[in-house]
Structures are given as C-alpha cells and as structure tokens.
Structure prediction request, 296 residues.
Amino acid sequence: MAIIGFIGLGNMGGPMAINLLKAGHDVKVFDLSALALEQVVSKGGKAAASAVDAVTKVDFIISMLPAGQHVQELYQTGDTPLLNVITKNTLIIDCSTIDAMTAQRVCTAASDRGLDFIDAPVSGGVGGAVAGSLAFMVGATEEQFLKAKPILECMGNNIFHAGQSGAGQIAKACNNMMLSILMAGTSEALNMGMRNGLDPAILSEIMKQSSGNNWALQVYNPVPGVMEAVPSSNNYQGGFQVDLMFKDLGLAMELSQQSNSPVPMGSVARSLFSLHKSKGNGKLDFSSVIKLYQDS
Ligand code: NAD
Prediction:
C-alpha cells in the first residue's frame, strides 16, 4: 500500500481521498478549510499540518484544486512552492481541471528539478467521485501513466492515457465543450417539441431510438419528471453546476484561440451558459439551461 499526500478536499477531493482510504492506502490530507479536512480525517485520513507536511515522505501527491492559479501557486510560485520540497520518486498527480498551458508549465518546472508532475482531470461529477467511478484523462509519459494507474483505479473505472503533459486537460476541455453543446441542443429540441404539444417523455424516447440519440437523452434528461434520480427531477440541485460548466467552457475557448481551432458551436454554448449564469442560476445543475428556452 502506498503513502499518499492529498491536497484539496472539496466536493470532489473529499470523496476521492476517502476512496483511497477504503482501498487501504495511507492518506495524509490537507485543505485550507478545517471543515473539509475534518470530513476526511473522520474517515481515517491523517491530518497534515500544512501542504508541505502533506507532501513530505509520500509516494504520491494528489491535488484537487479549483483553478490553474491555485495549482501554479501551490507548486511553483507561491510563498512555499512545493516543488522546492518534494523529493524525487514521488509522483505528483494533479486532478484539478485547469488550462493545459499551466499544467505544462508546472510539469516543466517539476522536470527541471528531476520531479514528475502529471495532469489527470476527471469526468463523472460528485456522484462519480463518491462511487469511485470517475473517468481520468491523463497527460503523462507512458512510465508515469503506468505508475499512476493503480492509484487512479481506486477512484475511477475508466483511466485513459490521453497523451503527453497537458493532453489530459485538452481532452477534458474537448469533452466538456461537447457536453455543453449536447445539453443545449437537447434542451432546444425538447422545448420545441413541448411547445408543439408533444409529451417530453415520448419525444425523448423517439429521439433516443433515432439519430438524435445522445448522452443527455440517455442518462441526464433536462426536463423535470422524464427521468428519476437526475438533477432536473430534483429542482436542478446536485450534479454539475452551471458555474463549473462556464469555467470549463472558458478553458475550451482559450484552447481554441491558442490552437486556432474554430469552435462556433462551443462559443454559442458558452454564450448560452453565460446568459443563464447571469440570471442567478450559477449554482444549479447545468441541465437547467433548458429554462433559458422555456422562459423565453
Ligand atoms: P471545491 O471548491 O469544492 O474544492 C476545492 C477545495 O480546494 C476546497 O476545499 C478549498 O478549500 C481547497 N483549496 C483551495 N486552495 C487550496 C490550497 N492552496 N491548499 C489546500 N486546499 C486548497 O471544488 P470541487 O468541486 O471539488 O472541484 C475541484 C476541481 O475538480 C475543480 O478544478 C473542478 O473544475 C473539478 N471538477 C469538478 C467537478 C464537480 O462536479 N464538482 C467535476 C469534475 C471536475
């Protein structure tokens, strides 16, 4: 069993650290929030006094932080950059969703010091983090990927090697841009059907069995009551917040600019989520974007 330092025990990081504990690993945990820390300590995590303490004498370090700025400050540019204290042979796995360039910058700074830093953002939301069924998209060398895989398998069941450093973040940006387009398109079609008198459950079934079939129709229908146990049937609570989708679409737009990739559909989806967020819906699940159509 490995000794793992885990930093960032929020909605995602908390349950991920708990799954590592359940798998029998020794997990040293740290978060700026005492409450977040306590929730994992109560399940067997060892409280670290600081981020430096969490990364001392461990085999792996996992971070799950809000954005790129937090990752860069923690490892490279903050008051006590962890890259200055982490020892060789410790594999650093950053699971936060951040821009690929920051991931590559921190990776280069790490490798300049003889250290290994890989990006491994996740898909599957809080439900997937709790269930241990996340998908990981990893940007790493083959050797780093093989070393990380058994640890990631304690928290997820689809572990993909997307490519070299930054590739995990690029895959995540592509996936979430696609997801936003699918959800907006599905909402648009369902709303038009409903305005023309169709039952959304029947229309959903027709499209699911026809060429309009997609993930939103299969497992995440945006119309309340069509499916049980999805956010739309629970006042759009839980699930994946509009704020986070908006953040991820920002990362996708940055990536499109850097790579000169046309993303007209992604840009429209970002405008829709921006408008929806500006109406005070940032904390709702992203399938609530259907309200934009229903309210117009
Ligand atoms: P969160 O805000 O719930 O948790 C982040 C945690 O990091 C907080 O507890 C905060 O106190 C801690 N933190 C911030 N800076 C720190 C520092 N310097 N040292 C120690 N702790 C620090 O966020 P979350 O929902 O858990 O998301 C984490 C990451 O996962 C984000 O990048 C997000 O985009 C990504 N993500 C989230 C979801 C989701 O559904 N919530 C799904 C996929 C990916």
